[in-house]
Amino acid sequence: MSRPQPLSGFPELLPRQRIVEQQVVDHLRRAFELHGFANLQTRAVEPMDQLLRKGETSKEVYVLSRLQSDGDEGDVGLGLHFDLTVPFARYVLENAGKLNFPFRRYQIQPVWRGERPQQGRFREFWQADIDIVDVGELPAHYEVELPLVINDALSGLPIPKVRMHVNNRKLSQGFYRGVGIGDTEEALRIIDKLDKIGHDATAKLLVERVDATPEQAEACLRLAAISAEDTSFVNEIRALGVIDPLLEEGLNELAAVVGAAAKEAPGFVVADMKIARGLDYYTGTVYEVFIEGQEHLGSVCSGGRYDTLASDGKHTYPGVGLSIGVSRLLVPLLNSGALTADREVPTCVLVALANEDERSAANGLAQRLRKRGIPTQVSPTAAKFGKQIKFADKRGIPFVLFTNDEGTQMKDIRSGDQATVDVDAWNPPAEDLNPRIIAE
Amino acid sequence: MSRPQPLSGFPELLPRQRIVEQQVVDHLRRAFELHGFANLQTRAVEPMDQLLRKGETSKEVYVLSRLQSDGDEGDVGLGLHFDLTVPFARYVLENAGKLNFPFRRYQIQPVWRGERPQQGRFREFWQADIDIVDVGELPAHYEVELPLVINDALSGLPIPKVRMHVNNRKLSQGFYRGVGIGDTEEALRIIDKLDKIGHDATAKLLVERVDATPEQAEACLRLAAISAEDTSFVNEIRALGVIDPLLEEGLNELAAVVGAAAKEAPGFVVADMKIARGLDYYTGTVYEVFIEGQEHLGSVCSGGRYDTLASDGKHTYPGVGLSIGVSRLLVPLLNSGALTADREVPTCVLVALANEDERSAANGLAQRLRKRGIPTQVSPTAAKFGKQIKFADKRGIPFVLFTNDEGTQMKDIRSGDQATVDVDAWNPPAEDLNPRIIAE
Fold it and tell me: Is the same domain home to B327 and B354?
């Protein structure tokens, strides 16, 4: 067959890039587990009726059919999931009797969106989600906790500085109601466009679509302009003179989130009254994480509190969750070369061969290193020593083990340093044991 | 919505089961990386023409379509991969210029088969594959190496005893040719059925389909009856008096595999002349791993050497690979309860709360434990202490941290032991840090 071409929207990584992605995902997993989140993996497919419940995104579903369905209807109406929330909600309902609530889970899986192929749009991409869900009631302290988990997860990653912008739907909707606007949900959806269409067009839409007076529209926009790294926003909003019990509730909840974050994760969270997430079903805190200075690229992590993740008629499951766009965050950095790894293999030591008859003995040496956790492989051929060094160098393998008259020698091929070693005692410097990420 | 029902053929795990699967997959990954295999992840979809090249399995492809394709043809003709070999072959061709050969990779991903739903058949399941591929030529020593890697990967897993049955296509086909059979490939496919249909029916098929004389058929069946844990099979086969250069090549290659394994992984590999893998395109060593005493359930890991994994006209890529059926191996053990975990969360310590005002201080304590790698979560409510203990107990969390007049106390809720601790110095026993697998 001729050389295949990449499929637009389905990014794949080279081994060296994949090492970076693996380490990033390991870091996220580690952070989530340190906070007590259990891992779940849901199947890739959901019934179409589940997938079509979530308005906008439904257009993008990939529908499955069997090539030879021989008349059975067992898998008619299945599609690939387009996020990890729909499958999680279904999983919670399906297994409610077997789960302990509050249930905290993380999930790191690909999702698929059958979008029109175009530059920068992924049709398969990885997300890393955390959610906490309860039965009946979900205390607001989880809305305080989640940003701290995400801060731990994103800290220490080789990515540009990011910041979480936080608002509270109760605050915004209470405020809009307080100034006399009827359709506060539509008002939220309009404010959501502020960054894109600007102040005047937003004011105009508020007047046209929710019957706001110019003064009411102006009040909404004054609220949207408020942002702060600490709880000072509370007084700033109170100074606008709007009174509403829902606004008050939202103010308190947002102050708790921002206050805790200012103390426990200084500089990570900013209260930002123009964050609305207009198309989603959030009912309390809403979150969006942007790369600082690149807010126009959209958020790399977002989420919020929803009073009904799922409901089976008898019970309601409220939750709060955040989703990190792993591919969205990493693929551009990997493709531009801003992120790479110092090796393209896990191998730390290459065992060189003087001749093919030594292979069994070399395997034995390699196995002794592996037993102590040192990734090792044996040279593919007993080529000239220089060629075997080159084999290691090309892949970034730092050490070559070989035997000469003086015994077993370990050579650091970067420095050229070489020493007689006891294979059962030698250890690489800790930073050389596994591949390292190199950030430009 | 009402309670959703599981989808037949799409197994999903509960959190406690998933912890087992995660640890098994981590163990496989670790073993592969210790042997220098680099990880790859390929996209879930392949062009249909790629998927349809591999005869039998093609019937089972899930075809994708976009719900709203608005006339563009960008993703017409995509299907979900049904194994990890087809995507790997395509990846090698697509990226050949950017890969270093010999290229050794592992891949742990789900695959999909749109089969008729029936008991015990999965339509989505996980595989863990390793392959070594080269350009032009692939030395036979990799056929010796791969079983040793798989032995390391499967050793130490909480699964029943398994054994790898090995044969060599050259040996069988050379032998058939040596006794005078023309269509040696068809003869292989017939011998592949021996376990299912028995000696007499196999002899009959050989006579009918490849024009074997009864004596020739009997010779083939005598060969198929030979098995050995060491290289004694070589003399046994030579004693059958068949002379053929291909047979001789196969004998030497198989002796190398079995000899090395007998030395480096005693008891794992058995030479077994009835292993044929009749439907696949192998050209040298073939492998099948069975659970001992449950050979009738089919293999849990299989593979072999192929002279052409892929070819782009200019270059040919020979390889050798093995695929572990992760779901096939684990799901029955998890569903029967033979395997479980002692926790359903990663959490090692629960920080209890005397009242809600303590939450911020409790977060601080939890964070100090996390900083030292101890998975910790804070109690969801300041309920009665007994209730908080119960919360931990239900999930299998072994330790509860709380504060009383004597200071900070760590309680092992299994033994009831309790002691004043320094939060910045306390460590759980190593075996309690992470969840443990419990095998019945």
Answer: no
Strand-pair category, A285-291 with A301-311: antiparallel
Nearest-Cα distance to chain B for A204, in Å, is 32
Alpha-carbon distance of B301 to B127, in angstroms, equals: 9
Return the bridge partners of A328, or none: none
pLDDT in tens, chain B (440 residues): 678 999 999 999 999 999 999 999 999 999 999 999 999 999 999 999 888 876 665 668 999 988 766 555 555 689 999 999 999 999 999 999 999 999 999 999 999 998 776 766 899 999 999 999 999 999 999 999 999 999 999 998 999 999 999 999 999 999 999 999 999 999 999 999 998 999 999 999 999 999 999 999 999 999 999 999 999 999 999 999 999 999 999 999 999 999 999 999 999 999 999 998 876 789 999 999 999 988 878 899 999 999 988 888 899 999 999 999 999 999 999 999 999 999 999 999 999 999 999 999 999 999 999 999 999 999 999 999 999 999 999 999 999 999 999 999 999 999 999 999 999 999 999 999 999 999 98
Can you tell me the ipTM of this complex? 0.95
**Separation between Cα atoms, residue B361 and residue B370, nearest integer Å:** 14
User: How far apart, in whole angstroms, are the C-alpha atoms of residue A208 and residue B274?
Assistant: 79
User: Is B3 part of a structural domain of the chain?
Assistant: no
Query: What is the pTM (predicted TM-score) of this model?
Result: 0.96
Among B320, B340, B360, the domain boundary falls at: B340
Query: Residue B429 has which token pair?
Result: 């026993």
Contact A42 B95 (CB under 8 A): no
DSSP string over B174-227? HHHHHHT-S-HHHHHHHHTTHHHHHHHHHHHHHHHHS---HHHHHHHHHHHT-E
Residues of chain B with Cβ-Cβ distance to A99 below 8 Å are 14-15
Please state whether beta strands A437-439 and A339-341 pair in parallel, antiparallel, or not at all (unpaired): antiparallel
Q: Is A60 on the interface with B (CB under 8 A)?
A: yes
User: Is B1 within the bounds of a domain?
Assistant: no
Residue B117 sits in the same domain as residue B190: yes
Q: In this structure, are A279 and A251 located in the same domain?
A: yes
Do A325 and A416 fall within a single domain? no
- Which amino acid would we find at residue A173? Q
Tell whether A224 and A316 lie within a shared domain. yes
A312 part of contact set with chain B, CB < 8 Å: yes
Cα nearest neighbour of A5 on chain B: B94
Phi-psi region of B267 (alpha: psi -120 to 50; beta: other; left: phi over 0): left
Distance CA A214, CA A348 (A): 67
Task: Please give the structure tokens belonging to residue B439.
Answer: 């095998």
Q: State the burial class of residue B404 (Cβ atoms within 10 Å of its Cβ: 0-12, 13-18, 19+).
A: exposed
The number of distinct structural domains making up chain A is 2
Please report residues of A whose CB lies closer than 8 A to that of B12: 41-43, 91
Among A35, A142, A331, most B C-beta atoms within 10 A, so best to mutate, is: A35
- B8 domain-assigned: no
- Nearest Cα of chain B lies from the Cα of A299 at a distance, in angstroms, of 24
Question: Where among A313, A340, A367 does a domain terminate?
Answer: A340
- Of all residues in chain B, the percent with pLDDT exceeding 90 is 86
**Residue B240: exposure state from Cβ atoms within 10 A (0-12, 13-18, ≥19):** middle
Q: What is the pLDDT of residues A307-326, one digit of tens each?
A: 988 888 899 999 999 999 99
Partner residue opposite B36 with nearest CB, options A50, A346, A360: A346
Taking the Cβ of residue A196 and every Cβ of chain B, the question of whether any pair is shorter than 8 Å is answered with no
Are A354 and A318 part of one and the same domain? no
Contact of A146 with A130, CB cutoff 8 Å: yes
Segment 218-257 of chain B within 8 Å of chain A by CB:
none
Same domain? B181 vs B233: yes
Domain boundaries, position A192: 15-42+115-340
**Distance between CA atoms of residues B324 and A181, nearest Å:** 61
